[in-house]
Amino acid sequence: MPVPVSVTHPKGAGIKAASAAVLPSEGPFERLKRQAAEAEAAAGTSAETAAPSAAAPPATATADPTSTPAIEVRDLDFSYPGLDGRPIPGLPPLIQGMRLSLPSGSRTLLLGANGAGKTTLLRILAGKHMVSKDAVRILGQPPFHETSLTTSGELAYVGGSWARDVAFAGAAVPLTGDFPARRLLDSVPGADPARRDALLKALDIDPEWRMHRVSDGQRRRVQVAAGLMRPFRVLLLDEVTVDLDVLGRASLMDFLRQECEQRGCAVVYATHIFDGLEGWPTHVAYVARGALQFARPAAEVPALKKGRLLEMVAELLREDREEQAKRQRVAVGEAEKAANAAGGKAAPALGPVRESATGELADDGLPVLEYDSTRDGEVSEFGYLRNNGWIGGTLNMSLKLSSNAVVRN
Questions:
Q1: Nearest to 391, CA basis, from 167, 80, 82, 175
Q2: Those residues with Cβ within 8 angstroms of residue 177's Cβ, 6 or more apart along the chain or in another chain
Q3: Which of 6, 74, 131, 274 stands the most exposed, by the fewest C-beta atoms within 10 Å?
Q4: What angle do CA 157, 239, 182 make, to 5 degrees?
Q5: What is the pLDDT of residues 262-299, one digit of tens each?
Q6: pLDDT tens for residues 314-342?
């Protein structure tokens, strides 16, 4: 609707003679509808005017797209900034020294424990965090700086959940709207109707689902369909099948396999659900403690051939947990030795931990550590400030930019 803009003068002159200016505006659904109409009109015009001429010269050969890796990471280091916009002192980079190269047509299974850095890596690949241009390349271009990768749909990222913080209700409240799924999917600009129908069939989506009445799994299906509506060349998936049932997950994996085999797309899929995935990936990558431990073709992973993917992942995570515990014990022991040598009291090196009251020793001879609730929040040289707002653990109040209203259309 038009928004009136007042016309003023510092001395009050000319107000009556001047007519009020109007700033056109539109809602999100109308804007998406207009963009879709403009895209269809542009496509029709180009099809009519692009008829081949008999005298036209032959097309020149283009470079082979498979010669450039679809995804390339070179010595990537990344840290989340603190409140001052700089890395938090005393903490190592969350991702350090990562190198990765994946070809077009690959289907990569990204493995790792919670907190290993998988989501951060996918978000960096999706261009959601700024890194140097040479550190990450998607289709030969830096994803953060070349926004055309995402606006064109060549680079697609589907992750997280459709949720928001609502005043006096809490965090991660599912997005709701009293409108059909069809209205949302049809609003994706440049979507091919045939591709839309194929996704609806593959994910078993009823276009008439009311989005404020669907289950978490149904909402996730619509989210995935919206993210895959436009043809992509690189797709990044972060735990998108967590709410899907077995049939929905199998149908999605089959659809992605066809996309990679028929159109040469590259897919990176991070998940903790491994049943039935032994024959799906072409590559397997494992991340632990912010570093890439290995990335190799699936043919070089014996567990896949034996159908023991789950057992392999469990063993990798178990070894990683033991390694982290050992490093923590070593760090605490070194801090105590340094403090004793200086005649002072040892500061907690890695948080609120203490030696076990029983004096128990681990297999490596170092003391077993246990949680100390009286020192919660302590670290070596600094401490995190706890938020005492409506939603614990977040930096913003739940009142800001939140609403209890339901979008109806």
A1: 167
A2: 184, 211, 212, 406, 407, 408, 409
A3: 6
A4: 60
A5: 999 999 999 999 988 999 999 999 999 889 999 999 99
A6: 999 999 988 888 888 887 777 777 777 76
The pLDDT tens digits for 42-62 are 777 655 554 444 443 333 333
Q: Assess contact for 116 and 288: CB atoms under 8 A.
A: yes
Residue extents of the structural domains in the chain? 65-307, 318-375
**Largest CA-CA distance found in the chain, in angstroms, rounded:** 91
Q: What is the chain's mean pLDDT, rounded? A: 76
Q: What is the pLDDT of residue 47?
A: 54
Helix H or strand E segment including 77: strand 71-78
**Does 399 score more than 70 pLDDT?**
no
- Taking Cα atoms as reference points, which of 251, 258, 223, 218 lies closest to residue 237? 223
CATH of segment(s) 65-307: 3.40.50.300
Torsion over CA: 317, 248, 119, 155 (sign):
positive
How far CA 110 is from CA of 185, 272, 275, 283, in Å, comes to: 28, 9, 15, 9
Per-residue burial over 120-159, b if 16 or more Cβ lie within 10 Å, else e, is: bbbbbbbbebebeeebbbbbebbbbebeebbeebbbbbbb
Distance CA 172, CA 392 (A): 12
Which pTM value belongs to this model? Answer: 0.67
